[in-house]
Amino acid sequence: MAMAPAVKLVLGSVAFAIFWVLAVFPAVPFLPVGRTAGSLLGATLMVLFRVITPDEAFAAVDLPILGLLFGTMVVSVYLERADMFKHLGALLSWKSRGARDLLCRVCLVSAVSGALFTNDTTCVVLTEFVLKVTRQHELAPHPFLLALASSANIGSSATPIGNPQNLVIAVQSGVSFGDFLLGIFPSMAVGVAVNAVIILVMYRKALSAAEKDEEASQAEAVSDEDVSSHQFSPATMSHLDSFRSEDQISLPEASQISSAPALRNRTPFAESASISRDASQAPRASMDAANSADDDERSSTSAYTKGWRRLLWKSCVYLVTLGMLVSLLAGLNMSWTAIAAALALVVLDFKDARPCLEKVSYSLLLFFCGMFITVDGFNKTGAPSALWDFVEPYSQFNRATGKIILALVILVLSNVASNVPTVLLLGARVAASAAAISPADEKKAWLFLAWVSTVAGNLSLLGSAANLIVCEQARRSEHFGYTLSFWRHLKFGVPSTLVVTAIGLALIR
C-alpha cells in the first residue's frame, strides 16, 4: 500500500498516538480519561482529520466480533449466578496436599477456565479465592497470583472465545472453533505445564518452607484437637451435667414448698375459677400449636420447592453453555451461537434481564468500536504497510530464523501497543505473507499470531488486562490485600514468556 499524503500521514499518526497513549496509560496525567474514552477520541480524530470518511469509519466496526464478545459476556454473567466459579474456586482447596499441589491446581483450573470463560473473567472471579486459600494455608500469595494470571493467559490461547485477540483472529481468518482448538491445544497444554514448572523452580524455597510450616501446623492442630476432645468429652463432663440437673430440679421444689401455705389458703371458688380458666385456655393453646406447625410445614415445603427450582435452573444454565460449546465445535457461526445462548439463558431465567445485562462491560464494547476505527484509519496512512515491508524479508514464515524474528516483533508490539491492536495491524499481512509462500501455511500463520500475541501478555504486568485485573483485585481485597509489583512480575514474566512461546511454536499444527 502506497504512503498517504504527508498531511494525512502526520494527522493519522497523531490520532493513533493519542489512542495508543491512552490505551496503554489510561490514567496519564495530562488526559486521565481512560481507555474507552481514548479509543473513541482516536476514532473521532481520524474522522475529523479526514483520514477516513464517516462511512468508512462505520464500515470499520466489526459487528461479528462485537456480537461474539457480547454473547460470551452475558453467558459468563449467568454462569457466575449459577455458582460455576464458586465450584471452580472450591476445587483449589479440595483435599489439597501442600503448597506445590495447590499451585498446580491454580495453574490447571485457571487455564481451563480461561479457555472456556475468557482470561479476564477467570482472573476477576478467582483472585479472591486464591487469596483466601493462601491465607488459610499461611502461604505467600505472590507465586499463586502469578500462576493464576499467567495460566489464564496461556489457557485462553486455545479457543476463539478465550480472549479478545483470538475473537478477532477467528472472525478475520475464518478458522473454525474446532480447527482453532486442535491447532493450539497441544501448545497450550505443554505451555501450562512448563509455566507451572518455572514457577515451582523460581519459588521452590518459599514453597518448600511453606509446606514444612503447614505440616507442623497440621500436627499441632491434630494434637490440640485430641486434647480438646479429651477435656470436653461426654464421659469427663458427666459429673457437671449431673450437678446442673440437680440444680434444675431443686429450684421448682423450693418454690413449691414456699407456696404451700398459699395453696392451703385458697378458697373452693378460686380453685374452680382457676380450673375454668385453664380449661378455656387449653383449646386456644392447641390451636396456636397447630397453626405454628402448619406454618412450619408450609415454610419447609416452600424452601424445598425453591431449592429444586434453583437446582433445575442451574442445570439449565450448564446445559445451555455446554450446547453453545458443542455448537461452536460443530462449526456453526460463532457470533450468532453466542448470542443465541445468551438469549436462551435470559428466557430461561424468566425475569427482568436488566440486572444481568447491566453487568456486561459495555465500555469494553465501545473500546473495540473506537479501536476498529482508529486502527483502520492508521492502516490507510500507509505507515503500517511500510513498516511491514521493511520487516517482511527478515520474517519469512518458511524459515526458522524468520519465525523467531516474527515472534519477537509480535512480542514487542503486543507489550508496546497491546495485543489486540497488534493483531489488527499485523494479522492480514502475516497471513498473506505466509500464503504467498505456501497456501497451506495461511491457517498456521493465524494460529502462530494467536499463540504469540496471547503468551506475550505474560511478559510484563502491563502486557495483558488479566495481569492488571489480578494486581488490582489483590491490592483492593478488603481482608487479603497484597501488592503485586511490576518488577517482581517482570522477573518471572521474561523467562516464562520466552520459554513457553518457543516450546509452543514447535507444537502448533
Number of strands: 0
Report Rg. 32 Å
Sheet of most strands: none
Helix content: over 70%
Helix segment tally: 23
Q: Tell me the distance between the termini.
A: 31 Å
Low-confidence stretches: 218-277
- Topology pattern, helix = H, strand = E: HHHHHHHHHHHHHHHHHHHHHHH
The secondary structure category is: mainly alpha
Please state roughly what percent of the residues sit in beta strands, choosing from under 5%, 5-15%, 15-25%, 25-35%, 35-45% or over 45%: under 5%
Q: What overall form do the CA principal axes indicate?
A: globular
**Average residue-wise pLDDT:** 82
Describe this structure in words.
The protein starts with 5 loop residues before the first helix and ends with a helix. It has a domain at 61-215 and 310-361 and 382-508. The protein is mainly α. It contains 23 helices and no strands. It is 79% helix and 0% strand.
Summarize the structure.
By secondary structure, the protein is mainly α. The chain is 79% helix and 0% strand.
Question: Which descriptors apply to this entry?
Answer:
single chain, 509 residues, mainly alpha, 23 helices, transmembrane, transport
